[in-house]
Amino acid sequence: MAGAGQLAQMTQQAAISLGIELRILAEKETESAVLAGARTLVAETSAESLRELAEGAAVLTFDHEGFDPDLLAQLKDEGIHMAPGPEAVLFAQDKLIARENLSREGFPLPPFAVAESIEDFDAFAGEHGWPVVAKTPRGGYDGGGVFIVEDREAAADLVAKVDGVLILEPLLAIKREFAVLAARSTAGEIAIYPVVETIQKDAICHETLVPAALPDEVCAEATEIARRLVEEIGATGIVAVEFFLTEDGVLINELALRPHNSGHWTIEGCVTSQFEQHLRAVLGWPLGSTELRAPAVALVNILGPDNGVDPLERVPDLIADPDVRLHLYTKGYRPGRKLGHATVLGPDLDAARAKTLHARALLQGEPK
Ligand code: ADP
After folding, report:
1. Does residue 169 line the site of ligand 1, with CB under 6 A?
2. Which end of the chain is more exposed for a tag (fewer CB within 10 A), N or C?
3. Pairing relation of β-strands 23-26 and 39-42?
4. Is 111 near ligand 1, meaning CB less than 6 Å away?
5. Whose CA is nearest to atom 15 of ligand 1?
6. Helix (H, G, I), strand (E, B) or coil at 25
7. Pocket lining: 146 vs ligand 1, CB cutoff 6 Å
8. Residue 306 burial (CB < 10 Å; 0-12/13-18/19+)?
């Protein structure tokens, strides 16, 4: 697995149980998956280090999307077996390529346009009004490449600042955000998880809730879209499809072709976690059941709070409650940084959610 963050860390946990030797490429020895004991190659990402990582491995897979698409294509041409393949990964690496291809195939997306100049903003705002949402096609996550552009002046500033094209979208009235996690194996088998609601604040996912508070037909439609999409783009491994529910129905926001924050709840919440499923899928093994283990599953992300409290120091206070399942990523405290998550299974969502929110308050609370 190229990359060594918390996704690789939790994949390592799954790999241990399945007797799989996970080898990772880490840029630093302090990264989460290194500390979790995965066999590590410490090196900058390059053709050489990726070749060395993949040497003798059954398959090369990824814990993030930040790899040069041309480099992946070159390594594939050299005969390195990777899952997902470079053509599919491109849908997660480049939001513009994803939008252009998916809209051509008839998938539901927000209206969008490409902007290179202030005139392009004018044309789009003329049709959809201000504010306009502008996104960099590549490199953004947790809202890093998303700009809400209030007016023409702000658009001119942004055009001057940003190198390259921007994707424009209307500022949507989003009723709900949710995700569907799908797995597709290299043998073509597909398994789909129950729809999960994601509660976002400032473009960061704070909570995930199952079952999602959505009409059955919305869940059925999104599930069908995810199934068709993974086939269409030839994805392998876990794919997270993020959706918006708006007045205009279900719209695709973006894709991730790897285990994803919206699937961490599956570790306890489903028969097969997304991490185990990813390994099964990329190795071409039979996929596991995606059945729920409880009627409701709530999860909160633990972020470094602004008050200077390091949640790690609060762990002994929390683990007195056996219902709260804590996952920490062995990452150093920094305000706003995702340090871990807590999951609670319950008979109903309100009860489970109340416990996760209590856990978060304990971990991120005011100094004692
Ligand atoms: P990232 O790749 O950084 O996660 P996203 O494109 O998923 O960026 O956007 C982050 C968040 O910003 C979304 O979860 C949503 O809350 C909000 N957002 C994105 N696009 C729009 C839009 N067109 N209208 C309104 N809100 C949006």
Report:
1. yes
2. C
3. parallel
4. no
5. 203
6. strand
7. yes
8. exposed
356 shares its domain with 207 = yes
Q: Which of 244, 248, 257 to mutate to test the pocket of ligand 1 (most atoms within 8 A of CB)?
A: 244
**The pTM of the whole model exceeds 0.90:** yes
The rounded Å distance from CA 148 to ligand 1 centre is: 10
Q: How far is CA 329 from CA 1, 60, 332, 341, in A?
A: 17, 23, 9, 9
Q: Give distance in angstroms: CA of 203 to centre of ligand 1.
A: 6
Residues 156 and 33 grouped into a single domain = no
Which protein residue has the closest C-alpha to ligand 1 atom 20?
Answer: 133
141 part of a folded domain: yes
User: CB of 172 closer than 6 A to ligand 1?
Assistant: yes
| 52 and 13 assigned to the same domain | yes
Residue 135, SS3 per DSSP: strand
Q: Is 253 in the pocket of ligand 1 (CB under 6 A)?
A: yes
In a domain, 330, yes or no: yes
Whether residue 97 is contained in a domain is answered as no
pLDDT in tens, the chain (368 residues): 999 999 999 999 999 999 999 999 999 999 999 999 999 999 999 999 999 999 999 999 999 999 999 999 999 999 999 999 999 999 999 999 999 999 999 999 999 999 999 999 999 999 999 999 999 999 877 778 899 999 999 999 999 999 899 999 999 999 999 999 999 999 999 999 999 999 999 889 999 999 999 999 999 999 999 999 999 999 999 999 999 999 999 999 999 999 999 999 999 999 999 999 999 999 999 999 999 999 999 999 999 999 888 898 888 888 778 899 999 999 999 999 999 999 999 999 999 999 999 999 999 886 65
Looking up residue 153, the CATH number of its domain turns out to be: 3.30.1490.20
- Which atom of ligand 1 is found nearest the CA of 141? 3
Domain boundary, last residue among 149, 170, 191:
170
Same domain, 165 and 72: no
Q: Do residues 247 and 212 both lie within one domain?
A: yes
Q: What's the rounded Cα separation, in Å, for the pair 30 and 28? A: 5
How remote is the C-alpha of 70 from its chain's centroid?
22
Q: Whose CA is nearest to atom 8 of ligand 1?
A: 143
**Strand locations in 146-271 (E):** 146-149, 166-170, 176-184, 190-192, 196-201, 204-210, 237-246, 249-256
Closest ligand 1 atom to 140 CA: 3
CATH number at residue 346: 3.30.470.20
Work out how many domains the chain is built from and give that number.
Answer: 3
> Domain limits at 34?
6-82
